[in-house]
Design a protein that fits this description.
single chain, alpha/beta, Rossmann fold, 2 domains, seven-stranded mixed β-sheet, two-stranded antiparallel ribbon, 9 strands, 35% helix
Amino acid sequence: MDSVRFKIKTLFDNYYKLFKGRIDKFFRRFYKHQHQLTSTTASDRYPQLFSETARIFGEANQEKILSFGCSTGEECFSLKKYFPRATIIGVDINKRNLKKAIKKNSYNDIRFYHSTGENIKREGGYNLIFCLSVLCRWEDTKFVHNSEKLYPFEKFEVTVESLASTLLPNGLLVIYNSNFRFEDTATFIDQGFEIMESPTLCDSGFVYKFDRNNNRITDTHAYCIYRKNPR
């Protein structure tokens, strides 16, 4: 009898997950003007990227860092290991995640805010901005050849333009696991950015890339660290 109940429960759970997955996928299509909808994070999840960024940035008396899409705070806490003298600002649109981050925070120089343009600009300018696994819609864009209906290039471009305007001269913008290439934006040229060579990094993430016309590209994209040159 227990075996029969177990099989029935397993069958029900599998059908429920399948049904819920299809429903979630359907409704996610209505959020094309929002960045990544998943809040998955982990402590020190990009150690190579953090180390390479710290190497390129070099020594500084005190940095100010923005973690754009900080989720429950693990990224901010991890960055402290690589930038121990930094003031770190974490922003996220999910207020539930922010409450968790604030509750876990034991640092006086790490602060969390709701992700609004006003909050981001008020705390700037920044020496480093990290946008890691945020400027994308994964896995929604995994099987499409054109991303316009799910996550258009325009949304990406407007966001990076706004963020880049809060970055100080010689500051670094780090974009990893995005659906688009920063080099394709007008901001890259207009605000005087250059690509920083990072030999220890072989790519800019596993998220599939699209061009400025939202068409899928298959070439490997290796760059994810950019410096804003003084004008």
